[in-house]
Fold this sequence. Notes:
The structure is a single chain. The protein is mainly β and about 45 residues long. It is built from no helices and three strands. Strands 2-1-3 form a three-stranded antiparallel beta sheet, with no helix packed on it. The protein is elongated and about 50 Å long.
Amino acid sequence: MYRCGSCGKNVELGSEDPIRCPFCGYKILFKERPGIVKKVKAR
């Protein structure tokens, strides 16, 4: 799952698909990553 840098819509791409937003044609897509919560024990 990727997020378009221009319109902000979520885009799902396959291995053969071009790197381009199908909604607006923008070529910069950002990889959606899960929020990692890191818990550190304080002293």
